[in-house]
Amino acid sequence: MTNVKMKVNGKTVAREVPDETLLSEFLREHLRLTGTHIGCDTSQCGACAVHVNGKMVKACTALAVSLEGAEVTTIEGLANGELHPMQVAFHDNHGLQCGFCTPGMIMAGVDMVNRYKAEGRELTSEAIRHELEGNICRCTGYHNIVKSIEDAAAKM
Amino acid sequence: MYPVKYHKPNTIDDAVAALAAGEEAMVLAGGQTLLATMKQHLASPSDLVDIRGIDGMVGACIDGDTLVIGAATTHAEVAGSAVVRKHCPGLAALAGNIGDPAVRNMGTIGGSLANNDPAACYPSAMLALGATIVTNTRQISADDYFQGMFATALEEGEIITSVRVDAPAKAAYAKFAQPASLFALVGVFVADGPHGVRVAVTGAGDDGVFRHAGLEAALASDWSAGALDSVDVSEDGLISDIHGSADYRAHLIKVMAKRAVAAA
Ligand SMILES: Cc1cc2nc3c(=O)[nH]c(=O)nc-3n(C[C@H](O)[C@H](O)[C@H](O)COP(=O)(O)OP(=O)(O)OC[C@H]3O[C@@H](n4cnc5c(N)ncnc54)[C@H](O)[C@@H]3O)c2cc1C
Ligand code: FES
Ligand code: FES
Question: What is the pLDDT of residues B179-203, one digit of tens each?
């Protein structure tokens, strides 16, 4: 067991957890932040994507103990009184059906928009499709997800 | 996952000691392979020794004409590194196309080389570039390092600390990705540098990454995609599985080699 301390969605949290605890378990079971979904648990689907120190990672494939002191943002931390532009865009563009993949899609969307902006690169719809390689959706056929991210990119 | 004890040493000496002290201790880097194997109970280490906190393990720099990349440098960091992009853009491009963005933010060059997956991207680059794998105890040339599927020259408890790559004149990688796993169904790295003209193939060989003498000879006399047309790529010793027959992979080797030459 290790006492793990990190900042999750702006709040400092500490929990005594077994060393093999995954970040996804830490968030869902210890902090009760169940917006981070577990789709595959094998690093394939991206439903569990969160941001750690500003970088997107798959929470099912990181140990909580290894993230001592890290700043973590989950889907619950995006809205700030109002929905985040990426969340609004998914709503406006019908970017989800069952919604299971959506937290990961939105975290991936925010990550790619921020990254392309910082590097001064244009986020084309082709680039969005390439960037979404690690996020699987079984419902939408991706089309409206790509449209949502394009829409949000123009507003972020 | 089975219970495990986590360690995060600050020095190589402490890491070596922790690896020796644990009953069945293993190095942890990005965890993008190891954590999945632990979940499947294919690995059940007693201790995990995280090397990401060790000084000098992360980052890339140039030492004369040699690129030095720390073992715990992530794929995203290699892809974005100004020195790697300047001295070996083909290597930066390879790193930027491993897996997906989240995997690239965690997975490391040292972890990929220690694992030596027969379909991994980096092994082909190291072999084609004639790189040197530096560990806590010695320097191993890529020619001696790769020893078949998931097999390397690493001894028990040996830690990769960096890789050294002599900057090539030209180099590039072309990958035909297996669409579900994103690993290479066939990947070819071509290089023309201080170690000569070398072509290494990943994803295709029954014994893991290998050099292709025929492609190398053709490129040594004429560095052009067209020079590869007449080369015979045999299907002997190539993988046949549900993703592609040996014959198909043999065909892809030539196609990928031509694309890599065109990109170099
Ligand atoms: C969805 C997905 C897609 C992927 N796609 C690709 C791809 O397209 N191409 C590709 O090449 N790879 C791909 N990978 C693999 C990825 O690159 C891994 O990051 C990499 O193979 C392992 O690196 P790691 O740092 O995560 O190592 P870990 O998982 O932490 O460790 C892997 C092994 O190496 C050992 N180890 C780690 N570092 C060292 C060291 N410095 N010294 C000695 N031993 C060490 C560990 O003990 C362990 O046995 C993919 C992975 C996933 C999950
Ligand atoms: S649950 Fe983490 S990638 Fe699918
Ligand atoms: S909306 Fe159902 S999985 Fe994507």
Answer: 889 999 999 999 999 999 999 999 9
DSSP strand E in chain B: where?
5-7, 25-28, 47-50, 60-63, 66-70, 132-135, 139-141, 160-166, 170-177, 184-193, 196-202, 210-211
Closest Cβ opposite residue A19 in set B5, B31, B180: B5
What is the second-level CATH architecture of the domain B60-263? 2-Layer Sandwich (3.30)
Token digits of residue A23: 């970040």
Q: Is this prediction's ipTM beyond 0.90?
A: yes
Q: Are B19 and B27 in contact (CB under 8 A)?
A: yes
Give how far B95 is from chain A: nearest CA, Å.
Answer: 14
Asked if residue A48 has its Cβ within 6 Å of ligand 2, the reply is: yes
Residue B154 DSSP label: P
In eight-state DSSP terms, residue B218 is H
Second CATH level (architecture) for the domain B5-50: 2-Layer Sandwich (3.30)
Residue owning the nearest CA to atom 2 of ligand 3: A98
**If you ran DSSP here, which 8-state letter would residue B48 be given?**
E
pTM strictly above 0.80: yes
